[in-house]
Design brief:
alpha+beta; Jelly Rolls; 9-stranded antiparallel β-sheet; 24 strands; globular; disordered N terminus; dioxygenase; iron ion binding; iron; transmembrane; EC 1.14.11.29
Length: 487
């Protein structure tokens, strides 16, 4: 042993045998002392760890001690959560699923005989994917039911001269100009015009078509691509749309190019639709009453060439904002009305042969700025042209569900502000047909209004006694058609 060491050291300096040996001895004594210290430190750390562990075990499972429910229980897989029935007053607290990090997979119990995997796709918006949420047969049943009911065009051209929000608010051209001029430089850039006008009347304006319109209307005599206040004032309020209309608008130039229908999911509905509603309740972990009082299932068909440019499913929350679903309880009239879709659950009913992805152009972007959506003539909202330039795309696979929160939390367990990152759209279908369905969970950001609405509904249900209970819970068979076009 010693010989070997000497041979080893000898290689370093064979001409100095004596001091080499002494150095070797000194080194080894230093080594053994530090080795002892290290061992002692480890030993003490080990003892402290053992004591800490014993204390932990004692306090977490000691007899008579009520264990902390959050600390001791393994979070996944969740046991099949009981579908409880909250009172008509509603809950004060909306559970929100944690994303943890992108790519995180959690197991969820949605049906008795299967454990689903739920993968986090993004945190902004909080977006999840659940493969195999629906079986192939369930997808086929939903498509058949939609076909039986009949689908209608998702977007019809708004009649000309429809009421304008600007007119309703009695804004002058100067005021409108100032609203459009986001960077306040006294001129309107193409982006500024497009940011506000590209979805007006359901016609989608692109940088190219806007230039064409400027030329056709001689709106920009100095030809610099910018509109001054003087140039802007010479245009009528819907000059762009009128110009396009006169030239003829193709379906591909609309905001969305699809057909859809609505399927009632309340009591007495087809068992697949009822099962779907229950599964969505388990998935979102929301009180069942909120899911039951939400919109019916929307089924959408995109033919080849169909698309839906990127949009938010619901609107921003201002003090004046009222929701469609709680309007009666709101007792107010305001132009700021929106659908208050807290969660969107999107089901892919078939696997699309080409295209048709769901795009989230700004998912998990570091920052979000509306004006940055159009840069160098690339409009990130344009799902016919620029789907590949956004941050995230989901391929449509039969049976998969994705869902996301359109609103942030208010920090107190209720609905907060619109999550601007929830911007999404349907990329153009290049081959085959695309069938999807949407479930939206409607919750009023004003908690008291939601509670009053739920109280009104439960009173009505109480008055309408069980024997002559009407199957048509919703008197208007198609209450939400066309609603999407103005969002
Ligand atoms: C509606 O609002 C008016 C005025 O604010 C109030 O007098 C009335 O009682 C309200 N009605 C309901 C049903 O809340
Ligand atoms: C996405 O984030 C980057 C980096 O912060 C930013 O430069 C860009 O403008 C953002 N995109 C949008 C559409 O806001």
């Amino acid at each position: 042993m010693k010989d070997e060491q000497q041979v080893g050291l000898g290689r370093l300096g064979p001409s100095l045998p004596v001091p080499r040996d002494r150095i070797h001895l000194q080194k080894s004594s230093v080594c053994s002392r530090s080795y002892f210290v290290v061992v002692m430190v480890f030993f003490h750390v080990y003892i402290i760890n053992v004591i800490a562990l014993l204390l932990y075990v004692h306090y977490n499972s000691g007899p008579g001690e009520p264990p902390d429910p959050a600390a001791g229980r393994a979070p996944e897989p969740d046991p099949l959560p009981p579908v409880s029935h909250a009172g008509p007053g509603g809950p004060l607290y909306l559970p929100r699923i944690e994303g943890i990090r992108v790519g995180h997979v959690q197991k969820v119990a949605l049906v008795p005989d299967k454990v689903h995997e739920m993968k986090t796709l993004s945190l902004k918006p909080l977006l999840f994917e659940v493969p195999g949420f629906l079986t192939e047969e369930e997808c086929q049943v939903i498509v058949q039911l939609a076909r039986l009911k009949g689908l209608t065009e998702s977007q019809v051209m708004a009649p000309e001269g429809g009421e304008e929000l600007a007119e309703e608010l009695e804004l002058s051209p100067e005021e409108i100009f100032n609203l459009l001029d986001l960077n306040q430089d006294g001129q309107l850039q193409l982006q500024e015009v497009l940011t506000h006008s590209r979805v007006r009347d359901g016609i989608w304006l692109t940088p190219d078509s806007l230039r064409e319109i400027y030329a056709g209307l001689k709106a920009d005599p100095d030809g610099n691509g910018l509109l001054s206040l003087e140039e802007f004032k010479r245009l009528s309020s819907n000059a762009f749309q009128r110009f396009l209309r006169q030239r003829g608008v193709q379906r591909s130039q609309l905001v969305r190019n699809s057909k859809h229908t609505w399927l009632y999911q309340g009591e007495g509905a087809h068992r697949v639709l009822r099962a779907l509603r229950e599964r969505v309740t388990r998935l979102t972990r929301l009180p069942p009453v909120l899911v039951e009082l939400s919109e019916p299932l929307q089924v959408v068909r995109y033919e080849r060439g169909g698309h839906y440019h990127a949009h938010h499913d619901s609107g921003p929350v201002y003090p004046e904002t009222v929701c469609h679903h709680t309007k009666l309880a709101a007792n107010a009239s305001t132009p700021f009305e929106t659908s208050c879709r807290y969660i969107t659950v999107l089901f892919y009913l078939n696997t699309v042969d080409g295209g048709g992805e769901t795009a989230f152009p700004v998912a998990d972007n570091r920052t979000y700025e509306e004006l940055s959506l159009i840069q160098n003539d690339i409009d990130l909202l344009d799902t016919r042209k620029n789907c590949d330039k956004g941050n995230l795309r989901v391929r449509p696979t039969q049976g998969t569900a994705i869902f996301w929160y359109n609103y942030l939390s208010d920090g107190k367990g209720w609905v907060g502000e619109l999550d601007e990152y929830s911007l999404h759209g349907g990329c153009v279908v290049t081959q085959g047909t695309k069938w999807v369905a949407n479930n939206w969970i409607n919750i009023d950001p004003d908690y008291r209004r939601q509670a009053r609405f739920q109280q009104m509904v439960s009173q009505q249900e109480g008055e309408r006694h069980a024997p002559n209970r009407d199957r048509n819970h919703n008197p208007d068979p198609d209450p939400h058609s066309g609603m999407h076009s103005d969002l």
